[in-house]
Design brief:
Length: 135
């Protein structure tokens, strides 16, 4: 079952596959998410810093700046450090030399169907909400 309690939240999709961006942008928008997209890392990072999204879905292999570099930059900046990130790539994370960074993020191996994507989006928002609760 897919739970859509996070309507209106902003999801930033970063991938150089424009067909995939168009598909996921349409599907997410249909379920009430605000969607922003980028096809290269440097533009994505500038855009995220200008208007911080609620979630970033990030490919590893991008022109200009790869997904790992973007993630590390987001972690260095206080204003973007707590944005949940989901990596979505055709690259097996175990083949990456710096794969330990994936421990704090969800990772989807392409191809990704919409049901799996929504499952991981909901899980990321639930983790974020749980982390903000005061004990």
């Amino acid at each position: 079952m897919i739970d859509f309690l996070d309507e209106g939240k902003t999801v930033f999709l970063i991938d150089d596959d424009t067909a995939l961006l168009e598909l996921f942008c349409e599907v997410l928008s249909d379920y009430g998410y605000q969607v922003r997209t980028a096809t290269n890392g440097q533009f994505a990072l500038r855009s995220i810093r200008q208007t911080v999204p609620d979630l970033v879905i990030l490919d590893l292999t991008l022109p200009g700046m790869n997904g790992v570099e973007i993630y590390k930059e987001l972690q260095r900046d206080e204003s973007t450090r707590k944005i949940p990130v989901i990596f979505m790539s055709g690259v097996d994370p175990n083949t990456e030399s710096d794969f330990t960074i994936f421990n704090d993020c969800d990772y989807l191996l392409k191809p990704v169907d919409c049901h799996r994507l929504f499952h991981h989006i909901n899980r990321a928002f639930k983790k974020e909400a749980f982390g903000k609760k005061k004990v």
